Amino acid sequence: MLDIIDSADDVIAVCVTDKISGAELDTIMDRLDGAMARHDKVHVFVETRSIDGIEVAGLGSYAMRALPLLGKLDRFGRVAVVADQGWIRAATKIESALLPHISYRVFEPEGRDEAFAWVTGKS
């Protein structure tokens, strides 16, 4: 399930729980495309809770939309990931190492407010 979190126009902020569907991935991509059309830098806040999978049917479409973002990595600013599962925090740290010019921070659930303040530039 996907919840959009109210945030500044240059921040994509979402909370994902359980399983994410192809339609939800499309919603995230729509918001990201819109923010990138309006801003030079876009920041991302992702909170995950008890993730148990991604709907396979939506991955192909998502991959086709996400691939062009590799040419726009310099447009990403701060990325904060709040996760209650260690495997997501570990995967995010690996992604951060692969993309060193993007400023990533990983938080456990008790650091949620700090993460949101950081990604929105209020800390």
Under CATH, the topology can be stated as Transcription Regulator spoIIAA
What is the beta-strand fraction?
25-35%
Number of discrete domains? 1
Structural class: alpha/beta
Low-confidence stretches: none
Spatial order of strands in the largest sheet: 1-2-3-4-5
Order of helices and strands: EEHEHEHEH
Per DSSP E runs of 2 or more residues, the count of β-strands stands at 5
- Mean pLDDT comes to 92
Shape: globular
Termini separation: 29 Å
Please identify, by name, the CATH architecture.
2-Layer Sandwich
Any idea what the radius of gyration is? Answer: 14 Å
Share of helix among residues?
A: 25-40%
Tally the helices: what do you get?
A: 4
Largest sheet: number of strands, sense, barrel closure = 5 strands, mixed
In short:
It is built from 4 helices and 5 strands, in the order ββαβαβαβα.
What does this structure look like?
The N and C termini lie far apart (29 Å). 37% of the residues lie in helices and 32% in strands. Helix 1 packs parallel to helix 2. With 123 residues, the chain is α/β, with parallel strands linked by helices. It has a single domain, classed as Transcription Regulator spoIIAA (2-Layer Sandwich). It contains 4 helices and 5 strands, in the order ββαβαβαβα. Strand 2, helix 1 and strand 3 form a beta-alpha-beta unit. Strands 1-2-3-4-5 form a 5-stranded mixed sheet, sandwiched between helices.
